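Deviation from plan, reported transparently: glycine complex.
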Amino acid sequence: MKVLLVGGGGREHAIAWAVSKSPRCEKLYAAPGNAGIAELAECVDISVMDAESLVSFAKEKGVDFCIVAPDDPLAAGVADAFLDAGIKTFGPRKNAAIIEASKAFSKDLMKKYDIPCAASETFDDADKALEYLKTLDAPYVIKADGLALGKGVLICNTLREAEDGIKEIMIDKKFGDAGDKVVIEEFMTGREVSVLCFSDGKTILPMTSAQDHKRAGDGDTGLNTGGMGTFSPSPFYTEEIAKFCEENVYKRTISAMASEGREFKGVLFCGLMLTEKGPKVLEFNARFGDPEAQVVIPRMKNDMLDVMEACVDGTLDKIDLEFDDGAAVCVMLASEGYPVSYKKGYEITGLDKFNEKEGYFAFHSGTKFAFKSATDGEPEKKVVVTNGGRVLGVTALGSTLLEARANAYKATEWVDFENKYMRNDIGKAIDDDK
Ligand code: AMP
Ligand code: GLY
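Because the crystal trials were delayed, the predicted structure below was used instead.
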């Protein structure tokens, strides 16, 4: 099978690793890919949003199977473009990806189909939103309706802050059209867990659980980021909770989407909060999480192409999804200053020390190739350099979470680049479980 993977971050590197292992993968292309993906796939410089060029490239190369991994192209209908061109494609159509692309849509869906979530109100008028805020107590949770690079959720401790937030989103349009509407939501407390599920529109198969660390600094301080590290499985996601979520969240959501005429094929990412009153949905995403994929995929035993194809063909009920009994931890190596401002272009060393057979992975998030000019006695050479805020997801396996965490932190020392920054407490919650 010839496969085209759309995307170029750490999540896509993990997907590329799994797909390239499949004996059925005869050729893998990635658009645009990155320096890590380039070890596994032929990278082509086409934007993830350029549906027309992606489809013509796929046709020209005789691609049999496409995978659309990131949120923006899914929300913009890139999967539709491939499907409409007659190419088998993994990833939901635009009318189903709306479950991530509009928080107002997903809240309406959850309310209509009795899927447990925080109480909320949606507003398209800033004055009404500001009036409503006055009837609530702190903390206030405000969400821009649309996609905002993971930055569209504000948790405000004072009314003043919340009012400023509404103004920034709805009047100043900090996130553009994504702020045409806002959702104001009840504040919940509890452990967070991410459960990614494969879906063929009828059958939904949850993967092993994971937990993300969204804040930039140790102890969950600092700004929200795209994710600074993950661990899998979550010890707090018990069998009892899993059973509850299967019935009340995953199956119910997939059948709700089908009833609405929005068949969901792909990965449904359920961000859950385990509250005192039971698990509640924080958000849905229409794709693998990043960096959840970097800990979940290395633990998956199945052939990735078999499972993805079953999602497209509607035969997921025939798949027995299996994960290893161990654990994985991913520590994100970022550029100092992320998520605000940071420098790029620094050489990365130590990548040759990672051996996936020993359970160590360096999934590239923001990297690219560059040429280092010749110096005395050394010829010009091609090197990997930093090319983003999040640079590498250092993932390690272990038989327990503690072992996986120790392995991952050990492996972070193998890698070096200028302005390297990481959190030192990824998986600290594991200690509370003892
Ligand atoms: P979301 O993008 O909706 O997952 O929100 C980003 C983060 O904001 C979540 O991972 C939570 O930590 C936090 N959050 C979102 N909604 C709520 C809520 N209703 N109560 C408390 N925290 C929340
Ligand atoms: N790690 C959260 C996300 O992918 O949205």
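The chain is about 30% helix and 30% strand. We consider this an acceptable substitute for the interim report.
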